[in-house]
Amino acid sequence: MFLHGNSRINQRGHLEIGGCDTVELAREFGTPLIIYDEEHIRSQCRTFIQACKSEGIPFQIAYASKAFCSIGMVQLIAEEGLSIDVVSGGELYTAIQAGFPPERIHFHGNNKSLEELKMALEEKIGCIVVDNFYEIALLSELCRERNQEVDVLLRITPGVHASTHKYIQTGQEDSKFGFDLASGQVDEAIKQVRAIPHFNFLGLHTHIGSQIFGSEGFIAAIDKIADYIENLDVPIKVLNLGGGFGIRYNEEHNPSPIESVVKEILRWVKKRFAEKSISLPEIWFEPGRSIVGEAGTTLYRLGAIKRLPGLRTYVSVDGGMSDNIRPALYQASHEAILANRALEPVNERYSIAGKLCESGDMLIWDIDLPTVHPNDLLAVSCTGAYGYSMASNYNRIPRPAVIFVRNGEARLIIQRETYEDLIRNDVKRIPQLIR
Q: Same domain, yes or no, for 82 and 116?
């Protein structure tokens, strides 16, 4: 397994993350356990900021909280000076409860409810990224009733196909997100927004997809947007280019360094806008996976071992698709090591199965490890993005605990769910039906 951030193998042959021995962490916090390298998260935040600063361009970095959202995570982002992007009332509520500055909150979503928009206005958040004509009308009526102004961006789809899994492509014309650039929807949306006195039109937002390894897709989107803005008689104060920066999940992945990708994007924006004599807008980015993905490691305890001679050997862990659905949903792949015997030579091939009652609950199909035994600890890398945030209670399995580790200290940021938590919202005495 490639060791990310502040991870190493110590003299005892144990995996250490942030100066903490994972064997000791399993003993203290139990398994499954999601471990975040706090310093690695902070370093990634600073990398984005420094890359933008180096290009001398007005910018804003907003963490895409859908990747992983908790009060502790939101507070860390606030400390690093980033803004935050939320896509639901629940994420917005979490940010508010964490004490995040509301003026640095951006609200996304293709079907924001009346209640969610009311909450956003009541909290006086920084801006709302409007996604469709229905939302324009809904938000306009709310602002009129409250006599309240709001900053808005329009999400557009520039017709760019990112090189990634089809489920996480978002910039193509056939998308549930945003106003289509090619068909004239963007023209009509701008016209409607500018006619509403309570709207302060900031500019445009685009997001082409996720797990993108280079700058090519962003450059293609910038070209289309620059061509459009050149003929637009409306000032664009902000151009939000979204996120989607990829990370290394396995040895086949070779993403370009974040710093170089961001610089290439910004230099291209400056070049294209200068060529067209367009005033340079403030550039916003929304990284999520690239902030937390490599910082997260999930620690499992091994259980049942099933050998099928000549076929494969299944090894089951005490979690699975309930805490990491990405392999089942996206055919995502991960690397792993035995955290308690990390220095021993590998000599067998295994398939790592989850404990849920689904044949598709497979975390890793083929991996070479030392001969495994029940109660060994398996550390699966790069589970920091869309692991806990997409976790479920399928099979009534409680969600795992989450910790931050840094400088040899661990702090709990999400408690492990209990069986009592699983039935907390169940109605325990159902009235008999009246016959």
A: yes
What region, left, alpha or beta, does residue 252 occupy, with left being phi > 0 and alpha being psi -120 to 50 degrees?
A: alpha
Q: Which two three-digit tokens encode residue 367?
A: 């991996």
| DSSP annotation of 73 | H
Same domain (yes/no): 357, 246: no
In eight-state DSSP terms, residue 212 is B
Q: Which of 52, 143, 357, 382 is catalytic?
A: 357
The rounded percent of the chain whose pLDDT value lies above 90 is 86
Domain assignment present for residue 430? The answer is no
Distance CA 155, CA 178 (A): 5
Q: Which of 340, 319, 363, 367 is nearest to 24 (CA)?
A: 340
Residue 253 pLDDT class (50, 70, 90 cuts): confident
What is the residue range of 402's domain? 7-30+295-422
Exposed, middle or buried: residue 255 (CB in 10 Å: 0-12, 13-18, 19+)? middle
Residue holding tokens 């009246």?
434
One domain for residues 240 and 372: no
Domain boundary residue among 292, 320, 347? 292
Of the candidates 242, 262, 318, the residue with the CA atom closest to the CA atom of residue 46:
262
Amino acid symbol at 107: F
- The pLDDT value given to residue 176: 87
> What tokens appear for 340 in the block?
């308690």
Tell me which residue has tokens 């650039």. Answer: 181
Domain assignment present for residue 191? The answer is yes
Tell me, yes or no, whether 206 and 312 share the same domain.
no
| Structural domain contains residue 1 | no
Cα–Cα distance for residue pair 205/186, rounded to 1 Å: 11
Contact 37/18 with Cβ under 8 angstroms?
yes
Q: How many domains does the chain have?
A: 2
Residue 427 lies in a domain: no
pLDDT in tens, 192-236: 999 999 999 999 999 988 889 888 989 999 999 999 999 899 999
Comparing 11 with 432, the larger pLDDT belongs to 11
- Is 357 among the residues known to form the active site? yes
To the nearest 10°, report the CA torsion of 170, 85, 223, 57.
-160
- Indicate the residue type of 124: K
Q: Is 338 helix (H, G, I), strand (E, B) or coil?
A: strand
Amino acid code (one letter) for 412: L
Q: Is the pTM of this model over 0.70?
A: yes
Strands 312-317 vs 348-353: parallel, antiparallel or unpaired: parallel
The angle formed by the CA atoms of residues 344, 350 and 352, to the nearest 5 degrees, is 110
CA 296 to CA 41: how far, in whole Å? 9
Six-digit token string for 354 = 């989850």
Do residue 364 and residue 309 come from a single domain?
A: yes
